[in-house]
Amino acid sequence: xxxxxxxxxxxxxxxxxxxxxxxxxxxxxxxxxxxxxxxxxxxxxxxxxxxxxxxxxxxxxxxxxxxxxxxxxxxxxxxxxxxxxxxxxxxxxxxxxxxxxxxxxxxxxxxxxxxxxxxxxxxxxxxxxxxxxxxxxxxxxxxxxxxxxxxxxxxxxxxxxxxxxxxxxxxxxxxxxxxxxxxxxxxxxxxxxxxxxxxxxxxxxxxxxxxxxxxxxxxxxxxxxxxxxxxxxxxxxxxxxxxxxxxxxxxxxxxxxxxxxxxxxxxxxxxxxxxxxxxxxxxxxxxxxxxxxxxxxxxxxxxxxxxxxxxxxxxxxxxxxxxxxxxxxxxxxxxxxxxxxxxxxxxx
Length: 348
Description:
Layout: E1 7-10, H1 16-21, E2 31-34, H2 41-52, E3 56-59, H3 65-75, E4 79-82, H4 84-96, E5 108-111, H5 118-128, E6 133-137, E7 145-149, H6 150-155, E8 159-165, E9 167-171, E10 184-189, E11 198-201, E12 206-208, E13 211-220, E14 226-231, E15 236-238, E16 241-243, H7 245-253, E17 258-267, E18 276-284, H8 292-300, E19 315-318, H9 331-345
Helix pairs in contact: 3-4, 4-5
């Protein structure tokens, strides 16, 4: 989702999905719902787990929040995996008519695939209970994984959990381990003695002394919990200060009228080629009175001023979700299109 697609060929045991099912809390007799496209690793692996464990499997051909809630209710779904964009799009539909849906059958509600805005995760914990909501981080490459339960998240808000398989470390630009609380690039590898889990076809992994990076930035805390900042390629600078789009998106996602949002860095018109400023795309609920000035005001109350789009011209409202059903956005393509429009509109 950040560049040219790459093929990842599994080099591990084809029974891995079934083996993963048990640590994820899947049980024989479960009813599993897959709302994510099977072309995405999360959807495919979840469906495979369900088939190998002989679950009743319900697959959505295309995500729709009303149907998602109806399928959980009608089939008494007990196990599902999802992504933050689905979580965000579903909440307003549920709260508009909660009496029409019954989510009490859910025993494991996993989300993964992208960082989840804390306000969205908190809303699902409040809805389902912390014992139901779990999160996984690791990537298609399956070298290492972190898990976090809802209870753990409430005491380590924003974390994606502790390492439960393989190994992870956070390194600075010189390859030195970062101390707790210091952001660096996340590297991972399988447990020592394990066979390789994948190989790229038509691409090359970023490696350092046997450790591979997926391009994510983050940090560990003193308790060993991992926190994601953003992808390295998405970070931009404002006045020499690093800005992570995910932080701005997380803040904006807390607004009750925002269904999805996307932030990119674009050239600062007041500094030539010397810096960038945030540009926000916002998908608001139908009938919302939210405008660009309201977005600026909402963000200024939650993040530093230099992380807020500088003028209303750098806030754009759209009428469709900004991520696909797998929770991915082609951020580089969106940024290029925005810059082209800004350049075309600039005075000659």
